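ok new one. same drill as before - structure tokens go in, u give me an amino acid for every spot. 116 of them this time. try not to just spam alanines like last time pls lmao
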């Protein structure tokens, strides 16, 4: 029987020491995925060294925060294709937030292309 993946999640009440340990194991390639809330990963962390599967288990209304969280993994030094998983239940607020973030992302891309 295959060995289960180690559990790892970063969220608002994750203790700083525990968060550092999770990020260290992630960057060492010992965690195949990590579940995150974008506020826990959007700013001040470097997560590009090895891991490449991230799971957003809830989304904020802020497209910037979601995008910044993804960019903590998909940046210079990342050797793998970054795969982002969204846990969304149909016909809930999560689905509405996800759709709105997609719209905001498309608008952001159009604006950036217009500036170049």
């Amino acid at each position: 029987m295959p060995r289960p993946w180690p559990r790892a999640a970063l969220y608002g009440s994750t203790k700083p020491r525990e968060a550092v340990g999770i990020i260290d194991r992630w960057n060492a390639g010992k965690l195949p995925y990590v579940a995150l809330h974008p506020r826990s990963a959007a700013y001040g962390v470097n997560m590009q060294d090895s891991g490449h599967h991230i799971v957003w288990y809830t989304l904020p209304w802020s497209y910037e925060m979601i995008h910044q969280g993804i960019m903590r993994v998909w940046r210079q030094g990342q050797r793998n294709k970054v795969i982002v998983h969204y846990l969304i239940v149909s016909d809930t607020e999560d689905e509405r937030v996800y759709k709105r973030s997609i719209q905001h992302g498309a608008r952001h891309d159009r604006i950036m292309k217009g500036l170049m």
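The longest strand covers residues 53-56. and btw The radius of gyration is 15 Å.
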